[in-house]
Amino acid sequence: MSILETAAQFGTYAVMAGVLIFALGVVTLRNLFHCALCLAAALIGTAVLYVVLRAEYLAAIQILLYVGAVVTLVIFAIMLTEHIAQKTVRQNNSQSPLAIVGLLGFVALLAGVILKTPWPVTQAALKAKVSVMGLGEALMGAYVFPFEVISIILIAALIGTVVIAKKDDAQ
Amino acid sequence: MTIFGWGVFKGMMVTLKNFLTSYFRKPDEGGIFTVQYPEEREKAIENFRNFPFLVYDGSPEKIRCVACGICERECPPKCIHIEMEIDVAGKPTRKPAVFDIDYGLCMNCGMCEEVCPFDSIFMDHAFEVTAPERNEGLVRNKKELSKSNEYFQKVRPTLASSIDQKRKAAEEKKKAAAAPQGVGGQAQPPQGQEPK
Amino acid sequence: MEIINALKNTDETQILEINFGPQHPSTHGVFRMTIQLEGEKICGLKPVFGYLHRNHEQIAENLPYAAIMPYTDRLDYVNALANNFGYALTIEKLAGLEVPERAEYIRVIMAELARVVNHITVIGFMLNDLGAFFTPLLYAFRERERILDLFEEITGSRLMNNFFRFGGVKRDLTNANLAAIQKIVSKFPAFLKEFEALLTKNEILCMRCQNIGVLSGDTATNAGITGPVLRASGVNYDIRKVDHYSIYDRFDFKIPLGEKGDVYDRFYVRVLEIRESLKILEQALAKIPAGEIINKKSLPLLKMPRNFKPPVGEAYGRVESPKGELGFYVVSDGTPQPWRYHVRAPSLINLTVLEEMCLGQKIADAIIILGSIDIVLGETDR
Amino acid sequence: MQNLLSSIDMIFVTAKAWVLSLLALFLPKWLIILASITISGVVILCLGPVIMMYLTLLERKLIGRIQNRYGPNRVGKWGLLQPIADGIKMFTKEDIVPANADKIVHLLAPIAIVVPALMIFLVVPFGKSMTAVNLNIGLLYFIAVSSITILPIFMGSWASRNKYSLLGGMRTAAQMISYEIPMTLAVVPAIMMSQSLSTNAIVLSQAGGCGLNWFIFTPWGIVGFIIFFLCATAECNRPPFDLPEAESELVAGFHTEYSGMKFALFYMAEYMNAFTLCGIAATLFLGGWQGPFLPSWVWFFGKTFVLICVMIWFRGTFPRFRVDHLMGFAWKFLLPLTLVNILLTALWQFTSNLVAWIGSILVLGISLWTLVKLNRTFVPEKRHYPLES
């Protein structure tokens, strides 16, 4: 049994490494289309990690929303403006030192938060399996307010898109 | 007002009907109408014309063609090439020495058959003509083009028999007119020119 | 608001130029269009043709009159008989040859059968352009095959018929042939009914065809469009009715007219024209008289085509080919060859309004508009 | 008798268990688990391509019959070896990569497209306890995985550097995103009624009643099924929704520049998708492997193949949609209808008697009528053709 577990562990690390490599690819590759593909790969890798952590629901949603919708739209946009996809875009400009400073600050902040948070790692929490039904109940019960707010925001976004598109059409 | 989707449904019923009838109807009534070609063949249609061939009576030497060159001249795409045979004395023998037809050029119009005054060139039924080369393989020489009258009878019976009758009548007329001259065999070009 | 404006300035979509053909599954041969696309919308279209140019007119000017006949088969190879008809009509006009009664009937029968063949083929191919997976096309070909078998029996060839002669036709129709034609004519309405059930009311087809590629009657007349394309635009113009050439004035038939001049009208006018052709065939089969099939005067010319020298002069003969007005203009200088020979090909002239019909439509529409014009590249490029 | 039937029913399950028990004699336990996964995996990996091969034959045969001809009948009896001959042909064809193509992406696209197609097989319940992985979010997994299919198509269309491919890719993206939404919403009623996302649980909730408990025998079920099936047809780019590869317009769409085995892989993915989508449709609305008398897997494959035949029938009958019509159909017609359908299902939870039946039919009829009235473009115009002399 332990062999399997170690194999699974190694597999997990490999997937993590892959995610990191692809994430690096997203920011360093010069061809925008390749970047988008790397982003998709990184997101799929994250979904795999979720599966490993027994959050299948989250994994499925991750793939459905991020890979199936977000990345697709990104690629769609890239393909619509084809001259971007063909050129290789320069990856840094005069503002990059500033950005690096900002990034370092953000990383420091994140690290601080992570280190300070008391992670409640108990045996019970590890064994607990969040069912879809539980999620649904949580959404409709405890978190119904944020849920509704999000839906309103989404509807506003939708209407906004339609308005912009409509104006374009009238021209 | 028709129901939305009714047209689509009707179309599907048509294809379904054809699908079912293809199993148990005859080709003429909505069954399968394709022919499994190399094994099955359509009934040969007599009037069908493809490439021209030359008719001989009996043996290939007795070819009807007299190398008059009319077909060569009238052929629209100019795919016929004829050279007359010349005997030792240097006299033309009224026989083709060379008779080439470029099948690659021929457009199967049947003009040669129409203009030939000697009933010697006819359109064949053989359509499975292939060659590996565009220029060489498709040029047919006299030997390849010559086919017996029996073959002609087999391929186009009505036309061949009517032409045989015509030729017989002409021959008898000729015999009656010039009995002492003897049998001319195939060498009877001037008489052939007035068929009717 | 500024952001929106900035976005609008940057997202001017690039115009994509596509070379449509000459190697393309649905250009009906080797036709080429240069299409400018904005997304899927067409904002420019230039037809380019000439890929199948075979020098038809020049070849004809170097051939005796009779030898041109097989070449006219190769113009519009879907209905060679209409081309034969037009050319024979022109030369008869030029040489003043009369055509015997029976020959006229045979001509009309053959030409109308060719029209039926052409129209079902066109509809089949148009449906293929629409994306139907060969089914309507193969149903059309099933019926076409029966008629082509008949052509083979009568003329000797399925497509390149070379059947008409100056002053008559090449071969007589036997009673068996007439019976076979009668059988086809009487069976055809059933097939048309099935065909229509498959297509006419189909919502997808209607969606795709209605109000697409609209051609107004005015534009069509100004551009010299003829044939079903013109009649679909609502203009009553059929040379069979206008010229009364051959013996078309003896038959009772109607000219179906379209309402809007879109692709659907062009499709349906053709269906209705098949019905009218069947009516003509019925009448011709009932009335066909016995007699000669070729003018006595032109009999010797069959054996000696080079002896045929029409008097000096010119003639323009035209017929209603299934694609439109097919005209032949021949100038004779008294030699065995025509001095000038010109073909007015309906396919070519109908193609001139292609851009006008396609602008603002989607790329998928351009294909069915092209299909609905019904071009045959043999005729367009000559 | 009952015994025999159930043993035939479980024949594949028992076979696998037997093999595993045989292996257990001399292999350690952790290897047995691996072996169990491998056996299921190998079976699925083989099943996919084999099904695809014979689907092509079936399609050609059926369409041939629809068009009054035989279809392939030369290679082997009834053309049964035709797919193998096709495979050999594909393998021996020259692999052409356009000079300007993005070589790596061009190579990756056909490989990547097969993966989601095969992954969906994991949650398809082929028979009683014959689901490879019994995920409790099976349906969501299916929707998620089938949404990835867009990516390889994008890759292929972009990497070919061909305008036809690019247009095909755009169309695919637009079409798949649009049709995913009504498809997902059409699934919701089945989830609501069975109160589970697991494909197995959905099948089990349709048990009994000699097949009358299948979801399709309810008003919301039949509407949901029809919408799901139409969306499935659109999802796997089959006629009349085959715009991405519209051969009369875009030559071959996104795989214009592919040849040989790469092209075959695209084809394979398409057919495997068709199979799995039909399988899922059967699972959701036709009771999956439920059915009287016959073994469960026979029922499942029977239902699936009937659905596939309907898809082929569509292909043999219809002309193709146009892009804007296709979009309009999804957004303006199917989407509102699915929403009404979900509402009806919620009501059905409370009452499911004759009154509910009539009420549902009434509501559906009214909403259908309104939608048709609102979508004038889909309704054929009436034309009048004067016959002038």
Word description of this protein:
The complex is a heterotetramer of chains A (171), B (196), C (382) and D (389). Chain A folds into two domains: 1-90, NADH-ubiquinone/plastoquinone oxidoreductase chain 6, subunit NuoJ (Four Helix Bundle (Hemerythrin (Met), subunit A), Up-down Bundle); 128-171. Helices cover 82% and strands 0% of the residues of chain A. Chain A is built from eight helices and no strands. Chain B folds into two domains: 8-42, no CATH class; 52-171, Alpha-Beta Plaits, CATH 3.30.70.3270. The longest helix of chain B is centred in the C-terminal third of the chain and has 21 residues, at 157-177. Chain D has 389 residues and is mostly helical. Chain D has one domain (51-376). Chain D contains 15 helices and one strand. In chain D, α10 runs antiparallel to α12 (260-285). The N and C termini of chain D lie far apart (76 Å). The chains are: A mainly alpha (171), B alpha+beta (196), C alpha+beta (382), D mainly alpha (389). Chains in contact: A-C, A-D, B-C, B-D, C-D.
Compact summary:
By secondary structure, chain A is mainly alpha-helical.
Distance between the termini of chain C: 58 Å
Low-confidence stretches of chain C: none
CATH class value of chain C = Mainly Alpha
Spatial order of strands in the largest sheet of chain C: 1-2-3
Q: What is the multimeric organization of the chains shown?
A: heterotetramer
Pair with the biggest interface: C-D, 50 and 42 residues
Per DSSP E runs of 2 or more residues, the count of β-strands of chain D stands at 1
Which shape of chain D, going by the Cα principal axes? globular
Question: What's the gyration radius of chain D in Å?
Answer: 23 Å
- The count of β-strands of chain C is 9
Poorly predicted segments of chain D: none
Number of domains of chain C: 1
Principal-axes shape call of chain C: globular
Largest sheet of chain C: 3 strands, antiparallel
- Structural class of chain C comes to alpha+beta
**CATH topology heading of chain C:** Cytochrome-c3 Hydrogenase, chain B
The biggest sheet of chain D amounts to: none
SSE pattern of chain D: HHHHHHHHHHHHHHHE
* SSE string of chain C, helices as H and strands as E: HEEEHHHHHEEHHHHHEHHEEEHHHH
The number of domains of chain D: 1
